[in-house]
Amino acid sequence: MKKFLFVIYTIFSPTIAFANQPKEWQLGFQEAASQSMRNIVNFHNNLLLPIIIAISVFVLFLMVYTCIRFRASKNPNPSKRTHNFAVEVLWTLIPCLILIVMAVPSFKILYEQDTIPKAEVTIKAVGYQWYWGYEYPDENIIFESYMIKDEDLKENQPRLLTVDNEVVVPVNKVVKVMITANDVLHAWALPSFGVKRDAVPGRINETWFKAEKVGTYYGQCSELCGIQHAFMPIAVRVVSEEEYVEWLSEAKIKFAKEKILENEYKKIARK
User: How far apart are CA 123 and CA 249, in angstroms?
Assistant: First the structure.
């Protein structure tokens, strides 16, 4: 009974503390960590959900009423009416008005998502079968991010989501992400930030986010891309500006682009 009540509660309270990653029995959204995601959650909870519930209840009422009111025992001689002008006008105009009410705020959200402010950090994400590659073009940093296997996980590290090299960004800074792919279609998605963009070979798609809370946030490739599609997690660690500067100084040595590319060329030469 407690589990049933918990499930019902999650349906109508989708923003309870499900921070950073999915949780067992979760049916709602992850906790929003950006204004963009907060707008999406508000749009869903305060507009879409009431409309969906109202329409569902109304249709159910009509079905029950029709079954009782027009059952064969009460109507031995069925009506031969073919149409009703007033009803036809109503069932055309009312859905149109509902769609307009839904469309106006959704267009605003889409516009805000597609209008990228001046970026303070730029990251390029490249999808491969089956891992992600990242580059900080302004900082000359490049690295690859692989999922850590179950046998190598440490305590409290989430299964299928933990990676060896996380993307690191500063809190409260506009981060622009340029997304592409090297082989097949992928999709770079982070639910807590309200971000999802397809990674298409030969094309660069752009998105952005501004993380408002320090922490590690998880996502996954959201486009079926082959046998190991489920093993392409995305991990973004949001840190303070001081920690970010410190990480940059270390990453410029560890993930220096020239050094990484030189090692890749050596591997190719050996083959």
Answer: 16
